[in-house]
Amino acid sequence: MKSGVRALGIAESFTGDSSTLAGAVVRASRVTDGFVFGSCTVGGSDATDAIAQMVHRLDRADVRYLLVAGIAPAWFNVVDLHRLHEETGLPVLSVTFEDSEGLEPALREEFSGEALAWRLDTYRAQPERERVSMNDETVFVRSVGCDSPAGEIVRAFTPEGGRPEPVRVARLAARAADRSFGPDE
């Protein structure tokens, strides 16, 4: 992949009832050249809309990929990757960092009724996770709308360690913004 190709990484940090979402535009060469911020409700159902709005507000035609940290930020605010792809026109990849049996047991423990049904329906509609090895670490990737294998895309944006640079930088930005403008301010 060419060094100038850009990806928008989305990550979150939360305290209280609101989650700070940060987006970082990062080139494959590791140069960061843009940020966008948003928020979603902790335990809510608005993460997909919030991320789509961030992409539109950023308004960067040069971004080629959307990398989201996880599939259920802000305490199970499940992201619909298919809808994100449709609404943004970008290939979407969700990257998680731990092997697990999935979210269904945790969802069933924490929610019931319509809140559970919506989460299960959205979660089950997402693509299966693909195990991707890189730099002696393993990540798990779900992808929608990619023109190249998901592993190749993630590796191109992960120069070292196991976190793709757009997601790593976005996480740092979300934490800093959350600490600076969190509920205590």
UniProtKB/TrEMBL annotation:
It comes from the Archaea. Belongs to the UPF0215 family. This is UPF0215 protein Huta_1767. It comes from Halorhabdus utahensis (strain DSM 12940 / JCM 11049 / AX-2).
